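Hi team,

As requested, here is the filled-out complex form for the adenosine-5'-diphosphate run. I kept the field names the same as last time so the parser does not choke. Let me know if anything looks off before we queue the next batch.

— J.
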Amino acid sequence: MSSLPSKIKIGIIGGGQLGKMLIEASRPWNTRTVVLESDKNCPASLVADEIIVGSLMDADKIRELAVVSDVVTFEIEHINAEALKSLEEQGKKVIPSAAVLQLIQDKGLQKEFYSKNQIPTAKFKLCHSQQDLITFSDEFDGTQLVVKHRKGGYDGKGVEIVTKNDIHTGRYIYPGPCLIEEYCEDMTEYSVIVAADQFGNLITYPLIEMYFNPRSNLVEFLFSPAEVTEDLEKNCTEVALQAVKALNSAGLFAVELFVDKESRVLVNEIAPRPHNSGHHTIEGSYTSQFEQLNRILLGLPLGNTEMVKPSAMINLVGGENQLGEYKLKFANELLQLPGVYIHLYNKKEIKPNRKMGHITVMADSIDELMLKAKKVQEMAVFEA
Ligand SMILES: Nc1ncnc2c1ncn2[C@@H]1O[C@H](COP(=O)(O)OP(=O)(O)O)[C@@H](O)[C@H]1O
Ligand SMILES: [Mg+2]
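And here is what came back:
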């Protein structure tokens, strides 16, 4: 696959908004797509050529998808990795590799991988019992710790901030296989998107600065390029590259980073797929994260990752008590602002904290971007 193939079909496991936007970006090149998802009315159903309805854990359904696909990828981690592995063994092209998926699915294995490869990460211990929690928690400074379930978490679900005292007194109960991690106080969160093609070439996007909603744990606002020193940007980019190189797989990766008060750069986790922290690249970059993944899957050259203009992204999420039908309240006002782009994810119903869409904001300078983004953020609400 070295030039634009006319009849290539991409198989995508998962039909959420990431799948939808990946397919949208594939359209200019006439790529065909087939999606595996349990709900035939999933977000990606609006744009996919074909939907295979079935569980993402069902090996037979994954095989059914692979049979009709030239290359298989996934837009969510909670899928049957064993099935992907056996497809790979039979010669099917799977990007990223099943081995990467298996590593990322288990936060414990992921943290051990960083340690083994000298990739800086917050201090941690794997725990298999309440006694482990009690014994190991004393090895950490400070009064607070972070407990992370090894498997099944997403968007902050499966991550809890607890006190040592709660662990010792049994107020906090061992939740099953987990890790405890040092609580990084007053850190800032960044992301570096790294693209790795099938030929061993890697490229990074400019640093992204992220702000999370403290209650929902969802990214609510981000912008890029981040406002940091050249040294810090370089440091973040190098750490992200080091981490992705160690994965040794083609794919598009979002490396989530913490930078603490002492400017220590720590890898929090890696998402082996397009990521919420890269949505601004749709309009803000010469090559969006979704086009980039299409290029990687099709064996095409990596695209330029420079920004067209400084850009921000605001997540559109369901408000408290919002249920059922919905509409974007200030759509008309937003659509009259230059450099403002609305994306909706084709979710059937609104729910509190459900990601319903996002808005990209572009401006000529970071100062102007912040002002414009603030105004947009106030209008980023639904009527349900
Ligand atoms: N060690 C830590 N110290 C402080 N905050 C943390 C720590 N680990 C996670 N968090 C916060 O919780 C969020 C979710 O944790 P993360 O490990 O990224 O899990 P998820 O898979 O749910 O994204 C992070 O983005 C960060 O805001
Ligand atoms: Mg995360």
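Two things worth flagging: The chain is about 30% helix and 25% strand. The CA atoms of residues 348 and 376 lie 24 Å apart.

Thanks,
J.
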